[in-house]
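sorry to bug you again but im stuck and you know this stuff better than me. theres a chain ive been looking at and ive put its sequence and its fold in token form underneath. id like you to explain what the token line says about the fold, in plain words if possible. anything you notice is useful, everything is just below.
___
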Amino acid sequence: MEDTKDMGLSTLEPGKYSKELDIAVRALQMACFLCQKVQESLISKTTSQVQAKDDNSPVTIAGIY
């Protein structure tokens, strides 16, 4: 992982972008929550079993319906 000095973050004032960071973190949390809800709804609509193909390639939702 890059050092903060290499990314130019060491020169920023503390709290300079705290509002933006707060908003970004909340947006990420909401996106994660929504993704989990969509995943749960898709799984509950199927037979609740993990599906697999003969060649072990991933099964997509498009391949189910």
